[in-house]
Design goal:
Radius of gyration: 17 Å
Number of strands: 9
Distance between the termini: 22 Å
Order of helices and strands: EHHEHEEEHEHHEHEE
Strand content: 15-25%
Largest sheet: 5 strands, mixed
Length: 238
């Protein structure tokens, strides 16, 4: 993944090898609660995952001398990876018992955990499945409010809900990095309102070339390396 606005030589999102590849690699785990009888709506799950990333970035345990701060720094010094897994029933209860933060939407619950080494997942998370996160929107998704930050998805890519949740999280993180301190405070105070929508195909080229934060996938799963997946459109960045 890459942010077009970050230096090309050492961006945490570039698919090309760079200095960040030489650092120990970490991943930010997210677990979506997907019960058989009551799965969340797809768009709500994507929006909840994006907010969960923002909540983790700004939690007092993630900054300064907080208990998660070292892991967060190590994660951000290397590639910025996120993996979404699913849990239900007892699996979800075991995940909830681990240190992390649960963020809820209208129908979705997503728990985000401090970063872990690629090969060092806690066993109760490592046993969870990545597949099976295909979700639908049972009702029509309304247009996004013009004053609400929008994470626009590439209309030409077919991503599973889990993949799209991770990409939405990347987009939210890029947007956060680009904001001024004043804009960050306002967004956080408001509870990180945001929308995730699929862009109109005719509008997508303009979004990609707008100078707004853009995610390019590293190609580890599902889609080709370098694919533009998300453009983060925040009023404060226009």
């Amino acid at each position: 993944m890459s942010n077009d606005q970050t230096p090309a030589a050492d961006s945490p999102f570039r698919p090309d090898p760079g200095a960040r590849d030489e650092a120990p690699q970490f991943v930010l785990p997210l677990v979506a609660r997907i019960e058989r009888a009551a799965p969340p709506a797809r768009t709500d799950a994507l929006e909840t995952a994006a907010r969960a990333v923002l909540v983790m970035l700004t939690d007092e345990r993630s900054v300064g001398d907080g208990e998660w701060a070292r892991a967060m720094r190590d994660w951000q010094d290397a590639r910025i990876r996120k993996v979404v897994r699913r849990a239900r029933g007892a699996e979800w209860r075991r995940a909830e018992a681990l240190p992390g933060i649960t963020v809820t939407g209208k129908s979705a619950e997503v728990r985000v955990f401090p970063p872990v080494p690629l090969d060092g997942w806690p066993k109760d998370l490592a046993r969870l499945q990545v597949s099976g996160t295909d979700l639908d929107d049972p009702d029509p998704v309304p247009p996004a409010d013009p004053v609400t930050p929008v994470l626009w998805l590439n209309p030409g890519l077919d991503m599973s809900a889990g993949k799209a949740m991770a990409q939405a999280g990347h987009g939210a993180q890029l947007a956060w990095w680009e904001l001024s301190d004043e804009a960050r405070t306002a967004w956080r105070t408001a509870g990180f309102p945001l929308a995730v929508r699929t862009a109109d195909p005719s509008h997508w080229p303009d979004l990609v070339n707008s100078g707004l934060p853009t995610v390019r996938d590293a190609g580890y799963t599902e889609i080709a390396p370098g694919s533009c997946t998300v453009v983060a459109d925040l009023p404060a960045l226009r």
